[in-house]
Design a protein that fits this description.
With about 190 residues, the protein is mainly alpha-helical. The chain has helices spanning about 5-10, 35-75, 80-105, 110-115, 130-145, 175-185. Helix 3 packs across helix 5 (about 130-145). Residues about 10-25 have low confidence and may be disordered.
Length: about 190
């Protein structure tokens, strides 16, 4: 093989059969000019292959960089935008908590306030919560829908179900005859 580097770089003047001058790299002056041309062609083709590989590698690196930039643009790795999104979520949670606290005791179910009021409009500027606006919104909700208001000072919904000890209006009869008189009246 002429392209094999081990054959081209052999330092022995004799080949396996003991003869000199058979293309091992140490040729006598007259016969080696053809083999030197083969070696030059092999070096040139190796350089061409290396240059092509380097070109493909640089193109692949450029493509990878382009894809990274494209991926970063679609992912939205802008830190300011991420911070703003987190602030908005946190502010919404704070407004929900403030609204539940303001509606507790004023509405039968404080979750009604979350469902019926515009939570986004209750957030103040800079992530703060406008407590006065929250209270006013709950007041307006109670005024617009009074059936949602908590009952203030009315009887419990179940009333008296007859459980527990009771005081009798009349003392309990002691004899069976007294029981009958009481049941049928004094006739």
């Amino acid at each position: 093989m002429a392209d094999d580097p081990q054959n081209a770089l052999s330092t022995s003047p004799e080949d396996e059969q003991g003869q000199t001058g058979t293309g091992t790299g140490t040729e006598p002056m007259g016969e080696g000019s053809a083999d030197k041309g083969d070696q030059a062609d092999a070096v040139k083709s190796a350089e061409t292959a290396r240059e092509a590989a380097e070109k493909r590698a640089s193109e692949a690196e450029a493509e990878a960089a382009r894809l990274r930039r494209s991926n970063a643009a679609t992912k939205g790795t802008d830190l300011d935008a991420m911070r703003e999104e987190i602030r908005a979520e946190f502010t919404a949670q704070l407004v929900h908590a403030e609204l539940r606290a303001a509606a507790t005791g004023r509405l039968r179910d404080p979750a009604d306030a979350l469902a019926l009021l515009d939570v986004a409009s209750l957030a103040g500027s800079g992530g703060g919560i406008d407590a006065a606006a929250v209270a006013a919104a709950v007041d307006q909700l109670v005024k617009d829908k009074p059936y949602l208001a908590a009952d203030q000072g009315t009887a419990p919904a179940w009333g008296d179900v007859g459980a527990g000890p009771r005081e009798a209006a009349d003392p309990e009869p002691t004899t069976p005859l007294d029981r009958l008189r009481r049941a049928y009246g004094d006739r």
